[in-house]
Amino acid sequence: MTERLRIALQKKGRLADDSYALLKKCGLRFSIRSGGLLARVKNMPIDLLLVRDDDIPSFVANDASDIGIVGENVLMEERFTTAGDLDADIKMRLGFSRCKLCLAAPANGKISNPADLSYTRIATTYPGVLGDYLNKNNIVAKSVDMKGAVELAPSIGIAESICDLVSSGATLEANGLVAFETILDSEAVLIASGRKLSPEKQAILDKLLSRIDGVIKSTETKYIMMNAPRDRVEEITELLPGADAPTIMPLAGDDNLVALQAVCTENIFWETLEDLKDLGARAILVLPIEKMMS
Ligand code: ATP
Ligand code: ZN
Questions:
Q1: Tens of pLDDT along 53-88?
Q2: DSSP letters of 89-108?
Q3: C-beta of residue 189 within 8 angstroms of C-beta of residue 22
């Protein structure tokens, strides 16, 4: 029987859809049944273990799963609550589910910076990360541990401030709160334990990591094409972000213009296109790249 690599994923929630989408872009074919704990990937020896995100670090550490995809915030919290005893580390940053763990307090209240926190109560679902922050900054404050709805704590009167995840800030605003400090920047990460995998599983993992790397690079990478004045090619090339030497081709019936094409590995902003136009470039096209392997 061939060995199958097991990946722990959030079953449902803010991390789940992007995790599934990433694996699908890597060519994995699977379908998620509601209520199922395990989904079988049809075209590769991989199984998906579908669980709550909070369980993912310990499942990876305790060999229930070989690797996992989880928010860095959840990994850090688990690390602090297990007192550094967690056998799970970041293998790759994935760039989605970006959010921040912030300290926030009622607008126009007594607390507007970390120094004001001394001898107050802070409500949070992240007592581990918060405790570490308070320790490192020599702040003596009480953490009020909650399971959710942290943003309500100040209005109920059980805490003066909160420590919670923020992405757009809309929830804070709706509750009259203002963030005054970020204690962790988080994104989805792929985690693995330090255990040695069998050669078969390692080979599957290496293939998956290389495909994920390709997917992440290709989302930032663009193919740019334009017609450019022959005598400005050098200046134009300098403007292209993260590009190797461009391909230059003659244009039929026009000696002064050439067709220029290049792969840019960084974002191309409107400002760059305007600068290119100022240098005489015309018919500029920026195309997405679907797959990359280098
Ligand atoms: P579960 O039922 O699996 O325990 P949950 O309710 O704890 O789910 P979600 O709200 O689905 O968690 O969030 C999962 C992860 O997504 C968070 O731990 C964080 O890494 C990330 N996240 C949280 N809020 C946002 C947000 N507003 N935008 C993007 N990502 C977010
Ligand atoms: Zn959770």
A1: 999 999 999 999 999 999 999 999 999 999 879 999
A2: EEEEE---S-EEEEEEEETT
A3: no
Q: What whole-number distance in Å separates Cα of residue 124 and Cα of residue 143?
A: 7
CA of 15 relative to ligand 2 center, distance in Å: 10
Q: Look at residue 243 in the predicted model and tell me its pLDDT.
A: 84
DSSP state, residue 160? S
C-beta of 78 in contact with ligand 1 (< 6 A): no
Closest residue by Cα to residue 212 from 24, 26, 71, 47: 26
Q: What confidence tens digit (pLDDT) does each residue in 18-36 have? A: 999 999 999 999 999 888 8
Tell me what pLDDT residue 156 has: 96
* Pocket flag, ligand 1, residue 161 (CB < 6 Å): no
The values of phi and psi at residue 84, to 5°, are 75, 15
Q: Which domains does the chain have, with CATH numbers?
A: 5-96+188-218 (3.40.190.10), 99-186 (3.40.190.10), 221-288 (3.30.70.120)
- Please report the atom of ligand 1 found closest to the CA of residue 70: 20
**Residue minimizing CA distance to atom 2 of ligand 1:** 52
Query: What average pLDDT does this structure show over 242-270?
Result: 92
Q: Which of 20, 99, 173 to mutate to test the pocket of ligand 1 (most atoms within 8 A of CB)?
A: 99
Whether residue 15 has its Cβ less than 6 Å from ligand 1: yes
Global pTM reads: 0.87
Centre of ligand 1 to C-alpha 202, Å, is 29
